[in-house]
Amino acid sequence: LKNNWPPSGRVVDSLTNQEAMKQLVTLFTVAFATGIRADVGPEENPAQVCKNETNFTEKKSEELNWDTYPDDPVIREFTFCLSKKLGYINTNGDLQNGAIKKMLLLDYEDDDDLVDKIINKCSVQKKTPRETTFELYRCLYNGAYKYTKDSF
């Protein structure tokens, strides 16, 4: 699938700015949750399909604006569904680091080394595919404001 994030231009000029990174991750999560892709209809948009399939409401989307990534069954299902549709996890439940890296490079200004370090930290297989994708998103969300070249 073609990834259209960010929707227009660079969202963050400097990854060392904690507030900008917090905003980036919030925008990233909410963009997927609300279906920001303009090149497909709502019935084809992965975020919209997953939102409908998992009952991911606007209220759930707003919960992701806090400083934590809440452990909620609906959010777990949504992240699992979205990860499958975007190719971040395969049908066997294995994370697809190449697809994850491609997405991260858009937000980390093509910094291969930093993205590889983030993937090494966040892309960890868990007991179930749902737990794996939830923990991937939670790691990215919780760590994104602190992941800089000096973080590792």
Automatic annotation (TrEMBL):
InterPro entries referenced in this protein's UniProt entry, alphabetically: PBP/GOBP, PBP_GOBP_sf
Main subcellular location of this protein, as a coarse class: secreted
Pfam family for this entry, one: PBP_GOBP
Localisation: Secreted
Gene3D superfamilies listed in its UniProt record: Pheromone/general odorant binding protein domain
Sorted UniProt keywords: Secreted, Signal
SMART domains xrefs: PhBP
Listed name of the protein: PBP GOBP domain containing protein
The species this protein was found in: Asbolus verrucosus (Desert ironclad beetle)
Phylogenetic placement of the source organism: Eukaryota, Metazoa, Ecdysozoa, Arthropoda, Hexapoda
